[in-house]
Amino acid sequence: MPVSFGTLYVVATPLGNLGDLSRRAVELLSKVPVVAAEDTRRTRGLLTHLEARPTLLSFHAHSVEHRLETILDILRSGRDVALVSDAGTPSVSDPGTDLVAEARASGISVVPIPGPSAVATILSAAGLPADRYLFLGFIPRKGRERTRLLSRAAAEEWSVVFFEAPPRLVALLEELIPLAGPGRTAVVGRELTKMHEEIRTGTLGDLADYYTGVPPRGELTIVLQGTGQPAAEPDRTEDAVEQATSLLAGGLSRREVVQRLTQSLGLPRNEAYKLVMELP
Q1: What is the 3-state composition of the chain as percent helix, strand, coil, each rounded to the nearest 5?
Q2: Structural domain boundaries enclosing 199
Q3: 8-state DSSP, 187
């Protein structure tokens, strides 16, 4: 007889306060045969507290390639697996997404066990608009992509949430100042739900000054206030002219070029028509 697949449980664990672990998560972690953990040392402490003794497998950014198939094979054999991150909800800014995607593609059932989330926790206490927000997680430490994301964050209409390591917090705040202005409000959540929890609100300038003098420790979640205004639409005229000129030179009729511009650049038809008709 064919073996029924096991179930992949995506289990949220406490950010720092064990009292935040749900009863459902306790029951699941106490009976599941295998746990895939981002950091086995941290997860072992939690399992010891629960007096649970599942097989513990490491599953982090550097082990995805060789560990993914191992976990999928366990699930295909009929055994259940619980996926946990260091803290909070898995698959949010960690490699859990890869495992969940592959499990779903293989026809394996994926069941979320919801609970703590650093993003929801900081937004609930930040006092900034949270009906809509942009989550950027950990942004690259340097390079063009970092610049692009910071520029996007500074221009964003809605609140923006970051994760950052303590040694890089001041650099993040200082890089945001010329983009968003020193007076833009931000909130820094440190050690959320733990004994030394701190949620500090201030301007980017004030926060940069404060954390320069008082280097932060512990895990950080940052919220940048949005502009409250829709970001300006990029000017697509130059691209449209270049594309239209090339298409006309290639032998397309002006009507065909108008259609191409509306499809490829999303230009309104009347705008595309006017632009094409004005070309020589």
Answers
A1: 45, 20, 35
A2: 119-224
A3: E
Please state the φ and ψ torsions of residue 252, each to the nearest 5 degrees: -75, 150
Strand bridging mode 109-113 / 7-11: parallel
Domain final position from 116, 148, 165: 116
Residues 129 and 205 in one domain: yes
Q: Which residue has the tokens 């320069």?
A: 212
Q: Say if residue 79 is in the same domain as residue 153.
A: no
What three-state secondary structure class fits 7? strand
Percent of the chain with pLDDT over 70: 97
Predicted local distance difference test score (pLDDT) of residue 1? 46
Total of domains in the chain: 3
| pTM (2 d.p.) | 0.79
CATH of the domain at 97: 3.40.1010.10
Quick one: average pLDDT of 97-106? 94
Length of the chain: 280
